[in-house]
Each structure stands twice: as C-alpha cells, then as structure tokens.
C-alpha cells in the first residue's frame, strides 16, 4: 500500500472514530477530557493536508494540457462545480477531483420536464423520477477499457430542501466521508482511456451498468445511466479525468469536451446525439 493510500484510509478511520465518540457523548460520559475527543478530527485534517502538498501546488500553478474527449451525455444540461470557475472545482484535490465537474439535465427549452428547483419547506424530498437527469444514458467519452464497475448501492431521495440540505451537510456527508470512498462516489465506473488517463463517472443509477471490468467500449457507447447514489443532493453526473484507476491515490487531469469545451457554473449547454448537428453551448446563466 502506498503512503498516499495509507494516509487516505487512516484519515477516514480517524473521522469515523471522531463521529462515533461524538455520538456516544450524547448518551454517556466519556472517560477523558472533552477536548481530547477532537484529536482524531485534527489528525485526519492534518493527514489530508500533508501528503502531496508540493504536487497539489504544482497542479494549480502549472496545470497539464487538457485531454480532449467526447461529452459523456447528450441533451440539454447545465454545469455545477465546474473547473472553469475554480480549481480545485469541488474545493479539494482528494479523490482525483481537482478538475471534476457536476452536470444536471435541464429538460427542453420549452420548460417541459424542467428540473425542480430548491424548496424551503415542502416537499422535504423528491423522488428521482422528478429530475430529467435520472436515467439519462452515460456515454463512453473515448474508446476505452473498463477497469472498475459497480452499481449495487441504492439511489436515495433528493436533498434539495432546507431540511434536506441540513441533513445532508451535517449528518449524511460526514458519515459517508468517514467511510470507504465508494460511499462518497456511489455507484461508479472507471474507464482506461490509454496514455495513463482514466475517466470516472460517479453517482450512477443502481443496476444500470451495461459493462463490466475488462470490457472494451467504443466512444459514444452507452455504459450506464445517471443516478442519485452516494454523496449527492439530486440526480446528476459527476465526471472527472484522473492519472490512475485508484480514486484514493489518483490526481486529477484537466479535460475538454469536444464541441463544448468546459462549461462554467450554471452555463446551459446542449450535446446533440451522434449523427445530429454538432454539440453546442448556450451562455444562459
């Protein structure tokens, strides 16, 4: 096991210890000073900051050239947490997320099948079928080999209300972050594109993968469906390129989608199906 892999596993274990003892403290008197209970959390944060610090600084100051691939979806989508706006796009270099992007389907321009907005009070949660992204085909961005594929985790309800977000940030995200990485990315598939570049699709729909490890896929081939598994608030596609197949130790690689580029946050873009006119993007924000 590499040092980076060990640090990642140990960090999650320390977070789990912190959560368990913090929960236990509500019910019993712990046999040590209250402030000592924060040591596992402090140690976990330190482990995240130390490994690869020099490499992370180099990524930001001197990023490699983007790898151009096809878009992983077709239809009308909008971008969230985009590397076009900030790097690292998700606020962390961990799990190969430096240049990751989240995208969600918006329905057609007429407003039909529009994506539900945020609700302050009601409904507290929505079923996944309410979102046009749920069940949308995920496409291979290049000719590739499948090196990881799993789709056994459930798709949960949305977390797009005030109560839902409070539960997500203060309970669910903390618990998932302390567990194995698969609990964060949910169902996911990793493709080896060659030349040391790997593509990872996260939050895949349960039971939707049409590929397994060792399969060769062609660019544009449907490999699964967009879902709402793992650490998510609503159905969406999390896509990233990495320099290795292990999410725990891989570093992010910048990308460009052919005909689209890198959509900025809240930018709406449309990708035409194969054989239709070229992909395009709108500057709607």
TrEMBL record:
InterPro entries: Cell_wall_metabolism_enzyme, Dup_hybrid_motif, M23ase_b-sheet_dom
Domain (M23ase beta-sheet core) ranges: 175-242
MF terms in GO: metalloendopeptidase activity
Residues annotated as transmembrane: none
Pfam families found in the cross-reference section: Peptidase_M23
Name of the featured protein: M23 family metallopeptidase
């Amino acid at each position: 096991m590499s040092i980076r892999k060990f640090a990642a596993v140990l960090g999650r274990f320390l977070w789990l210890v912190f959560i368990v003892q913090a929960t236990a403290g509500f019910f019993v008197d712990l046999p040590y000073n209250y402030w000592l209970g924060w040591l596992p959390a402090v140690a976990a944060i330190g482990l995240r900051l130390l490994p690869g610090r020099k490499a992370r600084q180099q990524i930001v100051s001197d990023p490699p050239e983007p790898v151009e691939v096809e878009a992983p979806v077709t239809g009308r989508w909008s971008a969230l947490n985009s590397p076009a706006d900030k790097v690292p796009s998700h606020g962390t270099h961990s799990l190969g997320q430096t240049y990751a992007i989240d995208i969600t389907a918006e329905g057609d321009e007429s407003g039909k099948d529009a994506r539900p907005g945020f609700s302050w009070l009601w409904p507290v949660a929505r079923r996944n079928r309410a979102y046009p992204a749920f069940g949308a085909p995920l496409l291979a961005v290049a000719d590739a080999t499948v090196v990881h594929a799993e789709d056994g985790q459930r798709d949960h309800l949305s977390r797009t209300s005030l109560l839902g977000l409070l539960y997500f940030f203060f309970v669910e995200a903390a618990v998932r972050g302390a567990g194995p990485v698969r609990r964060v990315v949910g169902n996911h598939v990793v493709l080896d594109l060659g030349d040391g570049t790997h593509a990872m699709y996260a939050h895949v729909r349960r039971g939707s993968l049409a590929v397994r490890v060792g399969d060769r896929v062609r660019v544009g081939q449907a490999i699964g469906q967009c879902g709402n598994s793992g650490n998510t608030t609503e159905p969406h596609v999390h896509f990233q390129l990495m320099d290795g197949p292990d999410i725990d130790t891989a570093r992010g690689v910048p990308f460009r989608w052919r005909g689209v580029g890198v959509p900025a946050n809240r930018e709406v873009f449309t990708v035409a199906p194969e054989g239709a006119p070229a992909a395009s993007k709108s500057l709607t924000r």
